[in-house]
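new request in #modeling-help
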Amino acid sequence: MTAGQERTLILVKPDAVRRNLCGEVLRRVERKGYRLIAVNLFTPGRELLERHYSEHVGQFFYEPLLEFMGSGPVLAVIAEGERVVEGFRSLAGTTDPTTAAPGTIRGDYGRDWEGVAKQNIVHGSDSPEAAAREIALWFPNLPSA
Ligand code: IDP
Ligand code: MG
C-alpha cells in the first residue's frame, strides 16, 4: 500500500445487488477518487457473517441481519485512498435508510421495507482497525500490499 493511504471494506448488500446497484455504488466510490483494489461477488455463508457481525450478537436485529445478508450475492470491495474509511462512511450516509441524507448512497437508494433488518444498500468499515479485520475475513487470499 502507498504511504499515507488506507483501505476500507465496502459491501454492496443483497438488496442493492438485486436492484442492479453495484455499478452505481462503484461509480460513486471511483468518482470520489478512491481506487478499487479487489472485488468479489458471492453469497456469504453463515460463518463469515457471524464473524463479520460479531459485535452485534444479542441485538434484536442480529438474526434478521444475518438472514438478510445471506439472502443473495454480496459484492465485497476493497477501496483505497487517504481517509477512505471515513470518506466512504460519509458517502454511504447514516445507518437508517429512511432518514439518511439525500445525496448519500443510503439516502438516495435505501428505505425501510418489511422485515426487521434495515436494508441499507452498503456496509463500510467504521475504523482502520475494523477495516483490517474485515478485509482479512472477506479476502483471505489477498496478496499483501
Ligand atoms: P452501520 O452499517 O451503519 O455501521 P451498524 O450499527 O454497524 O450500522 O449495524 C450493522 C447493520 O445492522 C446495519 O447496516 C443495518 O443493516 C443493521 N441494523 C443496524 N441497526 C439496526 C436496527 O436498529 N434495526 C434493524 N437493523 C439494524
Ligand atoms: Mg457498523
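bot summary: The two ends are 5 Å apart (CA to CA).
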